[in-house]
Amino acid sequence: MGMIQTQNLTKKYGELVALDHLTLTVEEGDAFGFLGPNGAGKTTTMKILSTLLKPTWGEARIDGLSVGPVNAQEVRRIIAYVPDFFGSYADLTVTEYLEFFAASYGIMGQDRRRVIGDVLELTDLTGKSLSEVNGLSRGMQQRLSVARALLHDPKLLLLDEPASGLDPRARVEMRELLKELHRMGKTILISSHILPELSELCNKFGIIERGKLKFVGGKDELLARTETGGRLHVRVAERADDARRALAGLSGVTGVRVEAEGLLVELEAHHPETVGQIARCLVEAGLKLVELRREEASLETAFMRMTEGAVQ
Ligand SMILES: Nc1ncnc2c1ncn2[C@@H]1O[C@H](COP(=O)(O)OP(=O)(O)OP(=O)(O)O)[C@@H](O)[C@H]1O
Known about the structure:
- By secondary structure, the protein is of the alpha/beta class.
- The protein has helices at 42-49, 72-78, 94-104, 109-122, 138-150, 168-183, 195-199, 219-224, 240-248, 272-284, 297-307; strands at residues 4-13, 16-26, 31-35, 57-62, 65-66, 79-82, 156-160, 187-192, 204-209, 212-217, 230-236, 253-259, 262-267, 289-294.
- Strands 6-7-8-3-9-10 form a six-stranded mixed β-sheet, sandwiched between helices. A four-stranded antiparallel β-sheet has the order 2-1-4-5, covered by helices on one side. It has a four-stranded antiparallel β-sheet with strand order 12-13-11-14, sandwiched between helices.
- Helix 5 (138-150) runs parallel beside helix 6.
- The relative contact order is 0.14.
- The site of adenosine-5'-triphosphate has 13 residues, from strand 2 and helix 1.
C-alpha cells in the first residue's frame, strides 16, 4: 500500500483542467520529486492531498485513508504541508510562533517545550528562538516552516517548492535538512521546476505538465527516456591521455576530451551499464580511477525534452 495513492485525480477551475486524471503512487519512505513547469498542477495536487482543496473527480488516499471530509482530521495528523509562501506573523518570536501551532495540534505543557526544542534543533534554529519571525532571512523562515510542519511528527511531508527564492547557501541548508528527514524515515513529496535541486535528495521522480503525468520513475529511467545519453566526467590519478585512448574505442562512447578537470566522455545513449564498462576499462588498462560522475545538466536536458517546454 502506497503512502500516497491517487486515482484519476482531476481538478477543474471553470473550463481550465488544472489536473487531468492523475494516477500516482508514492511508497512509504520515498523521497518523491514532483517536477513540472509553472502552472503544471503541482500546487493543486499538494492542496488536494493536504485536504485544502476538493478534487472535481477522482480519488486520493493517504496511508490508505480516502482524502475527503470524513477522514480530514485523521489525514491531517499524518501529513504536513509546507506551502511555497510564508505569511506575515505580526511580531511573534520563533518560539511563540511554534507554541501557537503546537497548541493548535493539542500539544501542551512539558511535551510542547520538548517538541519545540527538538524541531528547533533539527532545523538549526535553536539560536533564533527569541528572534522575531518577520526579521528572519527567507532561508530561516523556510526552515521555520519545516519546523512547524514537524511539530506533530507527521509521516508524510508535502513540500511545495521549499527552495524557491533561497540563496545558494540557504538551498544547501534546506537540502541537508530534507535529506536528514528522509533518513529519519519520513516520506517526502517535494515539488520544484528545477531538476538538479531534487536529483540529490529524491529516489523517484514524477514529471507533470498541463495537469498530466508524463513520467514516473527513477533517475536512470528518466535519463534512459531521452534520446541522447549525456556526459560523464572521469578523473584518473595520472596518464589522462592513456585513459582517453582506452575510452575512445569503447562502444557507446562518441567522444572523449581531456580537460583541465579530467576527461569529458560523451555517450551515444544512456545505459546504466555504460558507467560500469568505463570503470572496468580504465582499471583493466592499469589506470587509477579517482572520480566518475554523470553531468547533472543532462538531467536538466532530460526534463526539457520530456515536457517540451509547454506551459499553460
Ligand atoms: N484558484 C484558481 N482558480 C483558477 N485557476 C487556478 C487556480 N489555482 C490554480 N489555477 C490554475 O491551474 C493551473 C495549475 O496551477 P498550479 O498552481 O497547480 O500549478 P503549479 O504546477 O503549482 O505551478 P507553479 O510552479 O507556478 O506553482 C494553472 O494554470 C493555474 O493558473
